[in-house]
Write a structure and sequence with these properties.
It is a single chain. The chain is mainly alpha-helical. It has three helices and two strands; from the N terminus they run E-E-H-H-H. It has a two-stranded antiparallel sheet. The termini are far apart.
């Protein structure tokens, strides 16, 4: 398929590139680059460095969501003494 000056072997690839733009300038690519940089430097200090498993991103869409996240950040360290993985 040909769209403007873009030659696309598969129609869906053209659609994705037109809707989302270059993949090097999106949020996921910025976060990926950040994590790569942190990982490289952290492993110089501690070769066993790993990112926390089961982590997921969450987009804050409203005040209620923001309050819930702020509460978690504030209250979570208070629970560490009871956390089986933190002993």
């Amino acid at each position: 398929m040909k769209t403007g000056t873009i030659q696309c072997p598969v129609e869906t690839q053209c659609i994705a590139s037109l809707q989302f733009g270059p993949q090097s300038k999106n949020l996921a690519s910025v976060i990926r680059g950040f994590k790569i940089g942190v990982t490289k430097n952290a492993r110089k200090i501690d070769s066993d460095f790993e990112w926390q498993p089961r982590f997921y991103d969450h987009i804050i869409r409203n005040g209620k969501s923001l309050e819930k996240i702020q509460s978690y950040i504030f209250n979570n360290p208070l629970q560490w003494k009871d956390d089986e993985y933190n002993n």
